[in-house]
Amino acid sequence: MSSTRLLPGGPVAESVLNDVAARAAVLTEKSVTPSLATILVGDDDASAGYIRIKQRQAAELGFDSPHTHLPADATQADLHAAIAAYNDDPAVHGLLVQYPVPGHLDYDAALQAMDPDKDVDGMHPLNMGRLALGMPGPLPCTPAGIEALLAYYDIPVSGREVVILGRGATLGRPLAVLLSQKRPTANAAVTVVHTGVPDWARYTQRADILIAAAGVPGIIQPEHVKPGAVVVGGGVRYEGRRLLPDVDESVESVAGAITPRVGGVGPTTVAMLFRNAITAAERAVAAA
Ligand SMILES: NC(=O)c1ccc[n+]([C@@H]2O[C@H](COP(=O)([O-])OP(=O)(O)OC[C@H]3O[C@@H](n4cnc5c(N)ncnc54)[C@H](OP(=O)(O)O)[C@@H]3O)[C@@H](O)[C@H]2O)c1
């Protein structure tokens, strides 16, 4: 029997969401209902499913969740008008545009049209800048979820060698910034490897904590991992409804601790979305 410790995201998410619900209740007592608005363009089934999950979660936490569904042939101006309406509505504290948008639309332009303080995905350029500068602001959800997961399981990060495979804007790059910040749950020696480093295994093999953020199924094999290391699988590719993780299942035999192939980082990402939303609501109330 393997002695590898599993690090599921579910309990981490539950603990974050319990805190969010308590904070939502405090606002409700002050007659403010926290509100997370969503915008969906088109009829992609998976995207509609993600919106439903977020709305269900919102209801459980005591949030309002106003929603705008634009047709697949909506123009960039239509999308920006929907964003502007939520930007200007003081009762809406958080906003997200479900990714991806149809190919004729520019998602980055839509992101930039959002009020950065309502950007619960933490992906607005201003929020990326705040992250780089260590200023308060909504954090990108998947990187923040990974920091929370490591902290929840008392995995020491400070002073340890963290190697991240992938430098993408949603995961690898912001995670490198986050885990190198001066904070007890971060403070690591972080190395980022990618296609520009063909011998990347040389780096992953010495990692105390290895984080896969490539989106290449099975790219992390046992020979890439130091025996006993902590392995976090962030990267996944979807083939239809099948989820194909970066970390091969055989890695479990060498890792000391590992996120499960399903129910690892994913649940923490959603929890961080609501943590960003409740923080935005609290800030708005404090500023009013
Ligand atoms: N679990 C979740 O909740 C969640 C949430 C968000 C994202 N994700 C997943 O996280 C992954 C990363 O997302 P992203 O948007 O940051 O990705 P991205 O922009 O596609 O970046 C992928 C990175 O992986 C590197 N890479 C790809 N193939 C490689 C190879 N063969 N060898 C070495 N490096 C390689 C790329 O290197 P180059 O830069 O050199 O091209 C790039 O830096 C995706 O799989 C995404 O689905 C998961």
TrEMBL record:
<feature type="binding site">
    <location>
        <begin position="166"/>
        <end position="168"/>
    </location>
    <ligand>
        <name>NADP(+)</name>
    </ligand>
</feature>
<keyword id="KW-0511">Multifunctional enzyme</keyword>
<keyword id="KW-0486">Methionine biosynthesis</keyword>
<dbReference type="Pfam" id="PF02882">
    <property type="entry name" value="THF_DHG_CYH_C"/>
</dbReference>
<keyword id="KW-0554">One-carbon metabolism</keyword>
<keyword id="KW-0378">Hydrolase</keyword>
<feature type="binding site">
    <location>
        <position position="236"/>
    </location>
    <ligand>
        <name>NADP(+)</name>
    </ligand>
</feature>
<dbReference type="InterPro" id="IPR020631">
    <property type="entry name" value="THF_DH/CycHdrlase_NAD-bd_dom"/>
</dbReference>
<comment type="subunit">
    <text>Homodimer.</text>
</comment>
<keyword id="KW-0368">Histidine biosynthesis</keyword>
<comment type="similarity">
    <text>Belongs to the tetrahydrofolate dehydrogenase/cyclohydrolase family.</text>
</comment>
<keyword id="KW-0028">Amino-acid biosynthesis</keyword>
<dbReference type="InterPro" id="IPR036291">
    <property type="entry name" value="NAD(P)-bd_dom_sf"/>
</dbReference>
<protein>
    <recommendedName>
        <fullName>Bifunctional protein FolD</fullName>
        <ecNumber>1.5.1.5</ecNumber>
        <ecNumber>3.5.4.9</ecNumber>
    </recommendedName>
</protein>
<keyword id="KW-0658">Purine biosynthesis</keyword>
<dbReference type="InterPro" id="IPR000672">
    <property type="entry name" value="THF_DH/CycHdrlase"/>
</dbReference>
<keyword id="KW-0560">Oxidoreductase</keyword>
<dbReference type="InterPro" id="IPR046346">
    <property type="entry name" value="Aminoacid_DH-like_N_sf"/>
</dbReference>
<comment type="pathway">
    <text>One-carbon metabolism; tetrahydrofolate interconversion.</text>
</comment>
<feature type="domain" description="Tetrahydrofolate dehydrogenase/cyclohydrolase NAD(P)-binding">
    <location>
        <begin position="140"/>
        <end position="284"/>
    </location>
</feature>
<keyword id="KW-0521">NADP</keyword>
<dbReference type="Pfam" id="PF00763">
    <property type="entry name" value="THF_DHG_CYH"/>
</dbReference>
<comment type="function">
    <text>Catalyzes the oxidation of 5,10-methylenetetrahydrofolate to 5,10-methenyltetrahydrofolate and then the hydrolysis of 5,10-methenyltetrahydrofolate to 10-formyltetrahydrofolate.</text>
</comment>
<dbReference type="InterPro" id="IPR020630">
    <property type="entry name" value="THF_DH/CycHdrlase_cat_dom"/>
</dbReference>
<feature type="domain" description="Tetrahydrofolate dehydrogenase/cyclohydrolase catalytic">
    <location>
        <begin position="8"/>
        <end position="121"/>
    </location>
</feature>
